Amino acid sequence: MKVYAGLAGIPVVKSSISYIDGQKGILEYRGIPIYELVQNSNFLEVSYLLVFGKLPKQTEYDQFLCDVKNNLNVDSSIINFLKDIPKDTHPMKVLQSIIPILSAFDENKDVLDEKHHYSALVRLLGQTPTVLAAWKRISEGKEIVEPDFRLSYGENFLYMLRGEKPEKAEGEIFDKCLILHAEHTINASTFTAIVVVSTLADFYSCVSSAVGSLSGRLHGGANERVYHMLSHIEKIEDIPKIIDEKLSRKERIMGFGHRVYKTYDPRALIIKELLEKLIKIKGDNIPLYQKAKEFEKVALERLKEKKIYPNIDFYSGVLYSLLGIPPEFYTPVFAMARISGWIAHCKEYLKENKLFRPTQIYDGGHNIHYIPPEKRE
Ligand code: CMC
Questions:
Q1: Fewer beta carbons under 10 A from the terminal one: N or C of the chain?
Q2: Where do the catalytic residues lie (predicted)?
Q3: Is residue 5 over pLDDT 90?
């Protein structure tokens, strides 16, 4: 028997939700290339596509939008809870702990009932932006901003977070970033979600567990670290030395590398384009962007040989910083968008559910006898 470390290359499900060709840098959601979706669609329409397997007809979309918007408000007890927790709690921890509590307000509790799937989907899509924005305001000692139902999904989040209405283009660019984060085959957090659903736990438990899995720096947590890595650079000329020192210490360059992509992550290319569009609106001289571009160029020179390229997390933080989103909220934004992907996988997995129960190769001792505390060395 052999151990497959990190299950690298081992299929654990059959899925029709998304597809990656890591050699060619292709990503498709339900067969549609990611470029086409970013160009033509919006985050909620893509969420519908991921979960229900087809693009919605106008009436279906209108109903879905209405159901998400009807769930933007959170119960006042959740807001009161947020007011009582230490203000320096990381928003990923807040999100991970609030999600199971949101289930208390959902009467559709049976994970085997389609009503639970729909209800958890629209509630989580509606309420996670509100919880995150409320946490940002509360942790800064500011008044929370109620959702504005007239705004688009992306605009409303930026509005609740910042307390002022974003420009239309800012909302649109942000919404497209959410499309990029929405789904990505069986990565660590999605695998976590299906492992949890395989026990027939409800979707709130699956999503909350997946949030914990996403928070690590090898996964979604990389975007926050890229931001800090770039902002600590004082002079652009120092970049080659900084990178060489990191590599000689065997330190990983955050925002670079991927288990599946052995070329550019297509999401990294799209997010860079979106960032350039945003920079045109905000003005040219964005020091963080200048540093990011130089860092990308030099790191690529050093890592390309090993097929290590920028991933989505390399530029996402720079873009979010221009939208006024604080660094500790970059991974929560990723989580907020990934809810539709996680739920799509949980729903799909349940169709032929099999409890995950892998095995191990035991390499410990046998028949070892108990030693009383006073005799232990
Ligand atoms: N910087 C420097 N070296 C790297 C990096 C990196 N970012 N990524 C991989 N390597 C090297 C690694 O040191 C190893 O070298 P050697 O063979 O000499 O020991 C080799 O590449 C293979 O590494 P691995 O850990 O076996 O490769 P993996 O496929 O498990 O790595 C990864 C995938 C994402 C964990 C890794 O690339 C990494 O740690 N990247 C930085 C964190 C990051 O940006 N994560 C976000 C991923 S994309 C968003 C998401 O979907 O989560």
A1: C
A2: 258, 313
A3: yes
**Closest ligand 1 atom to Cα of 265:** 48
From the CA of 247, give the closest atom in ligand 1.
2
What does the pLDDT read at residue 207? 98
Residue 55 has pLDDT above 90, yes or no: yes
CB atoms within 10 A of CB 201: 17
The domain segmentation of the chain, as residue ranges, is 17-215+330-351, 222-323
Instruction: Please give the model's pTM, rounded to 2 decimal places.
Output: 0.95
Tell me the pLDDT band of 231, cut-offs 50, 70 and 90: very high
Question: Could you read off the pLDDT of 112-126 as tens digits, one per residue?
Answer: 999 999 999 999 999
In whole angstroms, give the CA distance from residue 106 to residue 204.
Answer: 10
Residues 166 and 174: their CA atoms lie apart, in Å, by 10
Is the shortest distance between the CB of 306 and ligand 1 below 6 Å? yes
Tokens of 15: 């899925």
Number of CB atoms found within 10 A of residue 19's CB: 15
Is it the case that residue 290 has pLDDT exceeding 90?
yes
Q: Is the CB of 226 under 6 A from ligand 1?
A: no
- The CATH-assigned architecture of domain 17-215+330-351 is Orthogonal Bundle (1.10)
Cα(259) to centroid(ligand 1), Å = 7
312 CB under 6 A from ligand 1? yes
Q: Kindly provide the ipTM of the predicted complex, given to two decimals.
A: 0.97
Q: Please give the pLDDT value at position 282.
A: 85
Residues with catalytic function: 258, 313
| CB 291 near ligand 1, within 6 Å | no
- Residue 213 CB–ligand 1 contact under 6 Å: no
| CA 313 / ligand 1 centre spacing (Å) | 13
Q: Which residues, other chains included, contact 149 with Cβ-Cβ below 8 Å and sequence gap of 6+? A: 69, 72, 156
From residue 183, give the alpha-carbon distance in Å to each of 112, 143, 163, 336, 338.
23, 33, 29, 11, 6
